[in-house]
Design brief:
The chain is of the alpha+beta class. It has two helices and three strands.
Length: 50
């Protein structure tokens, strides 16, 4: 089963990397990326984590 940010565990979510000059976030354990612009626009997937 593949995890997504919505189904990922806390342990998976705390392992993240900033992309570029802080333009986004990458979760290697979940293989998911989101841009800061997406966060600021209220990306529905990530609302639970911000």
């Amino acid at each position: 089963m593949v995890s997504t940010p919505r189904t990922a565990s806390q342990k998976q979510l705390i392992n993240y990397e900033l992309l570029g000059d802080g333009e986004g976030i990458h979760w290697p354990n979940v293989d998911e990326d989101i841009s800061v612009a997406g966060l600021l626009q209220g990306d529905q997937i990530m609302r639970r984590y911000i």
